[in-house]
Amino acid sequence: MQREIIQWFESEGRDLPWRRPGFTPWGSLVSEFMLQQTPVARVLPKLDAWLKRWPTPAALAADSPGEAVRAWDKLGYPRRALWLHACAVAIVERYDGHVPSSVHDLLSLPGVGPYTARAIAVFAFGAHEPVVDTNIRRVIARHEKGLADQGAPREKQDLADMDTLLPDSDLSPVFNQAVMELGALVCTTKSPTCGACPIAKSCAWRAAGYPENSTGTKPKQKKYEGSDRQARGAILAVLRSAGHSVEKSEIDQCWADPVQRDRALSSLLSDGLVTMTADESFALPN
């Protein structure tokens, strides 16, 4: 199974920047932040622009968090930009400007959770650790357990499941990446292409006749149109384009519902994505 997946990945895996030789650990960290709940196609141009502007943690740390939020633009979930800036500052202050290599040290950085820490340790530094995202969990659920989907995350069990599959060699980083890619391209949620799968012959789900899970329906994703998220995005768009502090009257023009608009503005202030100036106008954080 290990050999088959790795061989498939070497011939069919996408050519992505963070997989190329010489891609920096800082680039890996930035890409992992950007890829959280965001498709690869949207990340690629933003990642390239970001690393050209801030090629090192020190470069970003020397700039304002507001500039990070401005550059984040419409990538979504803009708090990630604030966390990334705080992460750069911490790397400069604690690690002399170098991204740490251990899971333990990576977890100490602002905004870095268990998945991100393991992904950077493995993909940037070649650590022998299991990495588990939703794609890997789905491949394991189907191939190993005969289940249609992966169910709710269970960190300890999920890591143990992947750990048992890792090669006992320096191939473990590429194996992690290969299983992730298999889930993203072939063993997809709705329309898996089993005919193109390198491990279809040993798949427990296929052998069982592709049974459906009986674990209940998945929660529906909340609509974006008309949501508080969209209202927050509209306010941030005003501040990004202005390049300076703006009056409340300007913000009032960007969203029709005054109650929802004020709620969105209040949440942005609470999150630190917007600040109120001395003259009670509003700006991105300094």
What would you say this structure looks like, in words?
The structure is a single chain. Helix content is 55%, strand content 1%. By secondary structure, it is mainly alpha-helical. The chain has a domain at 228-283: Arc Repressor Mutant, subunit A (Orthogonal Bundle). It has a two-stranded antiparallel sheet. Helix 2 (25-35) runs antiparallel to helix 8 and helix 9 crosses helix 11 (172-185). The longest helix has 17 residues, at 79-95. The radius of gyration is 21 Å and the shape is globular. The N and C termini lie far apart (51 Å).
Give a concise summary:
This protein is mainly α and 286 residues long. The chain has 15 helices and two strands. The chain has a domain at 228-283: Arc Repressor Mutant, subunit A, CATH 1.10.10.
Main attributes of the structure:
mainly alpha; Arc Repressor Mutant, subunit A; 15 helices
**In the CATH classification, which architecture of the domain at 228-283 applies?**
Orthogonal Bundle
Q: Average pLDDT across residues? A: 93
Structural class: mainly alpha
Q: In sequence order, what are the helices and strands, one letter per element?
A: HHHHHHHHHHHHHHHEE
Query: Nearest-angstrom radius of gyration?
Result: 21 Å
Largest sheet: number of strands, sense, barrel closure: 2 strands, antiparallel
Q: According to CATH, what is the topology of the domain at 228-283?
A: Arc Repressor Mutant, subunit A
Shape: globular
Helical stretch tally? 15
Tell how many strands the DSSP assignment holds.
2
Proportion of residues in extended strands: under 5%
Strand numbers in spatial order across the main sheet:
1-2
- Report the CATH C-level class of the domain at 228-283: Mainly Alpha
C-alpha termini separation: 51 Å
Helix residue percentage: 40-55%
Low-confidence stretches: none
